Every structure is written in structure tokens, then in C-alpha cells.
Amino acid sequence: MIWIYLLILIALSAAAFLGGRELARRRAIGAKPHSRPGQHGAYALIWVAAPALLVLILASVFSAPLQRQLTAVGTPDAVAALEHFRRDAFFADAHRVGRGEPALQIWERPLAEHLPVEARRMVRIERTLSWGGGIAAILAAILGGLFALTQIKPQTRARNRVEGWIYGALFVCSAIAVLTTLGIIASLAFDSFRFFQKVPILDFLFGTQWSPQIAIRADQVGSSGAFGAVPLFAGTLLIMVIAMCVAAPIGLFSAIYLSEYAGRTTRAVIKPLLEILAGVPTVVYGFFAALTVGPLLRVFFNEIGLFLIGGPLDGLGQYLALVQNQMALTAGAVMGIMLIPFVSSLSDDILNAVPQSLRDGSFAMGATKSETVKRVLLPAALPGIAGALLLAVSRAIGETMIVTMAAGLAANLTFNPLDTVTTVTVQIVTLLTGDQEFNSAKTLSAFGLGLTLFLVTLVLNIIAHRIVQTYREQYD
Amino acid sequence: MKFRIFRSAEDQTGAGPVDPTETPRMGGQVLPEVTPSKARAGAEPRLEDATPVSNATVVDSPPVGPIKIAARDVSVFYEGKQALYDVSLDIPDKTVTALIGPSGCGKSTFLRTMNRMNDTIAGAKVTGRIAMDDEDINDRSIDPVLLRARVGMVFQRPNPFPKSIYENVAYGPKIHGLVSSKAEMDDVVEKALKRAGLWEEVADRLQSSAMGLSGGQQQRLVIARAIAVNPEVILMDEPCSALDPIATARIEELIDELRERFCIVIVTHSMAQAARVSQRTAFFHMGRLVETGDTEDIFQNPRERRTLDYITGRFG
């Protein structure tokens, strides 16, 4: 139904535009108009479309509660006497019957008789509301249009008024983005606050024990419910460092190759390929880590371990022989691979932003390509590259899928890359997936973690953008 | 080497009829025969050494000093499009040679062939022979990197590296391993800055960023950077086009001083500048060398109609 109304509105708007333009043209004869006819047309269009859209939006928002109110008014006593959720079920069934579908449950004697009556009444209410909304919208459009028609005069400043409307519409769109972000922060902060009422913030930030399972029975083992986030942040840090050890050099060097050494054809092939690599969903990297890289690394270390057992390094051998699939190294290495295109693409842009005149200057001094890169380009681009790396770091910290699939769940406080560690994001995922009770400290701790993570990446991003910005200003 | 920012009185008299109050300082007044630099160099004009220019379309009077660079039938192609047609030109040592002509006439392209900067442009091809001291610089055995240490270049816009003033000048000596100690480097930097007439302005802030200098200072810094490796030739591609008149005058004085030690080739859009600083002038048009000769002759008695039209401002 709403589509028909929308079509009618579009037709009315088009008519308003054409009519307004024509009318403006006619009324302008003999006078010197302030605005062009097309602007008057646009002004009429806005006055037709905007009020009608507003009415339609209000109607769709308020029709459901209004319908509930109206249904409640004429309810027979037998239905009104039902418990809350039974009454809802009854009306749901009445709704189904009204649409010609069979009822979901069998209602007892007095109710069964009311059912068809109520069904007809509900259909009537619904139809009235729907028609009412549509007619109100069309009325609003007509009223708006009439108002606009009175406004079409040579001295009307239609140009400025249309500009004002456009300004307003654009402002609302950008405000929505900003307000949504603020809303996310507010909801995070609110739930985190509830969490910090149950767990002291200092225990959370500096505790070294993480086991969010809370004992249901008193004698349960290992379910003490400790919320020290240090092991999680240590795990995140470890994986991030491994990832950057992979991504920073490879990404940077490939950027240098692309921007300074590669010929035009090579570049035309490699750059899009790298960008495709950046578009691979992280869950695919997750498979790759869990099913390919993890087992490979495990076999590799196990073989070394078996070789060492019995020798002078027996202890190390014993340890290596028992290394598992899920280790920080796997997750970190694959995350590093994921970040390579990100780093190289950003660094490539930054290196390309270094003016050609600096390269010419260096070459003209008799410097080779690598000398130019090392002594002129990299120092000049260093702030920008540092910014790019920081952005990569904040992506590594926030990355979820790869670590969920490859890093493990045990919150070990360790910096051994062969150990299983867990990260903040993995814990948030495990805490919030599945059926959860939204009042326990266990579930709420996810919000505490989320807020902390958000603040860390926010600070990193701000620093990175600052650096990139100062770098940009240098040559402008 | 004695350092002077301004030309001394001795030079003024040595230069013969140069008297700024009497006549404007046109290039023709400092002819190579009478300049002290020429006398100091002690070299006889080696006219017989220069291969006669055979291109019939070029009106030419032979240069007067020893030939530093001899270009024969040089053509340049950018991705198959020809930008320079069979240019043959002799460039004498210890002289300022100006390349003039309207935009897109190939003068900068020709300049860039002399230190093989066209190599750095993908799709550029150079044919013909360019001999520097009778040695083909496009020869396989010549490493462009080493060639560029002998042929310095100054660009249109000052392009100091975003490093300290000291680091900028020390760049060349460092990459070519010309110095072995910090003290020696300090000495090289100081000398180069003094020769470029910048020392007194920056001596107390050598470690501050070169980006903080004014445009004219930056251009002199770039010249200091170029002469720090003791090149034989300095190529200048419109070195003053981004500068105000005062900074321009300062650079022109500097060019005049540097002429004593280096072979200088300058591309310029300003005919007045060519007349002021150069002893030899070559006029390019549509990728061809039209006329070359002593600056005085070119500006006072051009033999080609197109040259006359250009220098009198009828086109260009």
C-alpha cells in the first residue's frame, strides 16, 4: 500500500515542479524575477514532497501503537480479562484469521466466538489507518503545493530558499552519522558503567586473571569469575606485534617497489591485485589460518621438537613437540598477510605524494635509486608512513575473525608466540554469542572490553590522522 | 679559493668596458676573450678541435673558448613523439651559455640530455652524440650516476630536501664518498655555502630545516648542494622563474661568479636575463636549434628572422 502512496507522491512532486516552473515563467512576464523558473519549480517540489514525506513517516511510526490502542478500546470483556501475553496471542491470531489464515491455537468457548468478530474489526481498523495515513499524506502534499503556488511571485527569493532546504537536508544526513556514533559510544559507556559497578575498574584494568565463567553451584571448579583484562590486552598486543613484523616491512618494501621501481605495466597489474587482496573477507583469512597455516606451523615445530628430544635441548624439544595448531604466531602471521595490502597501498600513496622535484634533485646529484629512496624519499615520507602503520595497528587490534579462528580461547599471560593466547575481540565474541543473560557480570564484561578497545583504537587513530595531516601540510 | 659575494673592482676593470652607469650590463660586454676567468684558465681557444657544425639550417658562429660539451645531431623522443630535432651545439667551458626560446621549444629537453636526466623518464629516447671532453656520455661505459656527479643541475623550482641545511649540502659528498671525516665535511659544506653566497645568512642555523629558507635562499642552497661535489658543468633550468626580482638579481650575480670555475648552461625564459648573464646564446624554436652565437651578436644582430621576432617580443 505504501508503494502506491509513494508513487502518487512522486507524480505529485513532478507535477509541482513542472507546474511551478511554468507558473513562474508566466508570472515573471513583464517583471524582473529574482529567481529562475526552475528554482521556483524546485521550491514547489520541496513544498509538495517534504510535508507529505513527514506525514508518511509519522504515520508508519505511530500506526502500530495507534492500532493497538484502537483494538483495546472495543475489546470484549472475556478478551480483556486475559493475561497480558495470552491477549497478545489472541490478537495475533485474530490478525491471522482476518488475513484468511488459520488460527495458530484452539481458543476455548467464549473466545472462539469472539475470534472472527475481532478479526473483522482488526481488518477494519488496519484498513482505516492505512487509508488515513495515505490520504493525510496526499492532503499534506496538496496543502504544501497550494502554499507554494501562492509563493510563486517574481520577487520571491526561491533560489535562496531552495539552497536553504538543500543545506538542511545535507546537514541532517551528516548529523545522522555523527549522532549514530555518539549513540554507540553512549550505549557502550552505559553498559560498561553497569559492569564497573559489579567489578571495580582497577581490578579490570590491572588484574592478571581472566576467567569470566561465574560459578552457578558453590562447588564448581575453575569458575571463580575473575575479570582481569591484562592477559587479553597482552594477547592482543602480542598478535599485533607479530602481525606488524610481517606487514610493516613487506608492505613498505612492496610500496617502494611499486612507486619507485616498477614499470608502468607492472604497476598496472600489481596495484589492482594488491587491492583485491585487501578486499578478501577476513573470515577467508581465518580459514587460511586455521586450516592451512596453523597445521603447517604445528607440524614444523613438532618435527623440530621430536628431533631435539633426547639431545642436549631435551626440554625445548619436549615443549616444541606439544605445540598446538592454535598459537599466537599463526594468527599474527596471517593477520600480517591481511595487512600487507593495507600498508602498501597507503604507503604507496604517501610515497607518490612526495614531489617529483625531490627525486629529480637527488638523481641530478648522482644518487642511485636506492640512495634516493633511503636518504630522501623515506625521510620525507616518514611521518606519513608512521601514520599508515598506526592505522594498520589499530586495524590489527580491532581484527576479530582471524583471531577467533586461529588464536584460541585460553587467556594466557605470555609473550611466547607459540603459546595459545586470546584477544579482546575474541573474548567479546565468545561472551556475546549464543544465549546470554544480559545482567551478569560475564556478559557485561564484553562492554567493558569493548569500551576499552574503542578508546585505544580511537586514540591510535587520532594520533595517526594527526601525523598524516601534518605530513600533508608540508608540501602544500 | 678567495671568496667574494660581490664582484671586486679589479674584476670590473678587468672586464674591460663594463661600467654599469654607462650602459646596461648586456651579456655582450663580458665577452670571453676579455674576462679574467678566461685569462686565468690559460687555455687557448681551440677552434680547430670543434667539429664544424654541419647542420645547414642552423645559422652559427663558432664559440670562442675550449669546447666542454659538443652535441651532434641530438634528437629526443618521448614515447615516439619527437621533442628535439637534430640539435648540434658546442658549449664552451668557463662560460655561461643561455638556451632561449618559447615554451615547448625543446630547450629544457636539450638541457636534460646533458646529464642524462631523460633516462629517468619512462619512454624517453635520445639519439645522436653528446661528447663531454671528447667522451660520449651516452656510451654504455658511462654510468649516469657518475656522470651526474660531474654535471650538476639546478631546477626551476627550488627543491631542497626536507632535511637540515647542512644535510642538504652534505648530501652529494656523502653519497659519493668524497670526504672521510666530519671536519672535512664541515669544511666542504662551508666552502660550498660560501661559494653560493649563502654562508653569512645561514652560518648560525646550519642544523635547522632547509624548508624554512626563503625561495631565493633555497635556490642558492640548491646551487650550493650542486657545487659541493665539485662538478665540471652546472645545468640550470629556469633557476629564477620562481623568484622575485631581488632574489633573481642575487642568483644572477652568483652565476656570474661561478662562471670562473664551471661550465654553466642556463635555460631561461627571460631574454633580459640571457643578455645579463650569458656570453653565448642558443635560440630554440619548435624543437630545433635556430641560431647560436655570442650573446651580443644574437641580441644585436640576429641573423635569423625568427630570432629577431622572438627577442623583440613578437612571439613566444
Automatic annotation (TrEMBL), chain A:
- Span-the-membrane segments of this chain are 42-62, 129-152, 164-190, 232-256, 276-297, 304-321, 327-346, 376-397, 444-464
Q: Which organism is it from?
A: Brevundimonas intermedia
Query: Membrane topology for this entry?
Result: Multi-pass membrane protein
Note the InterPro entries from the entry: MetI-like (IPR000515), MetI-like_sf (IPR035906), Phosphate_PstC (IPR011864), PstC_N (IPR022182)
Residue ranges constituting the ABC transmembrane type-1 domain according to the UniProt record: 233-464
Q: Where in the cell is it found?
A: Cell inner membrane; Cell membrane
Any one Gene Ontology cellular component term annotated for this protein: plasma membrane
Q: Name one GO molecular function term.
A: phosphate transmembrane transporter activity
Q: What is this protein called?
A: Phosphate transport system permease protein
The protein's UniProt keywords, in alphabetical order, are: Cell inner membrane, Cell membrane, Membrane, Phosphate transport, Transmembrane, Transmembrane helix, Transport
| Taxonomic lineage of the native organism | Bacteria, Pseudomonadati, Pseudomonadota, Alphaproteobacteria, Caulobacterales
Q: Which residues form a coiled coil?
A: none
Tell me, what does this protein do in biology? Part of the binding-protein-dependent transport system for phosphate; probably responsible for the translocation of the substrate across the membrane.
State the similarity comment: Belongs to the binding-protein-dependent transport system permease family. CysTW subfamily.
UniProtKB/TrEMBL annotation, chain B:
A GO CC annotation given for this chain: membrane
Q: Where is the ABC transporter domain?
A: 69-311
Q: Which UniProt keywords apply?
A: ATP-binding, Nucleotide-binding, Phosphate transport, Transport
Q: Which InterPro entries match?
A: AAA+_ATPase (IPR003593), ABC_transporter-like_ATP-bd (IPR003439), ABC_transporter-like_CS (IPR017871), P-loop_NTPase (IPR027417), PstB-like (IPR005670)
* Molecular-function GO term, any one: phosphate transmembrane transporter activity
GO BP terms: namely: phosphate ion transmembrane transport
Specify where the region named Disordered lies, as residue ranges.
1-48
Q: Check the record and name the Pfam families matching this protein.
A: ABC_tran
The answer to whether keyword ATP-binding applies is: yes
Superkingdom of this entry's organism?
Bacteria
PANTHER family documented for this protein: ABC TRANSPORTER I FAMILY MEMBER 17
Record's protein name: Phosphate ABC transporter ATP-binding protein
Which organism is this entry from?
Answer: Brevundimonas intermedia
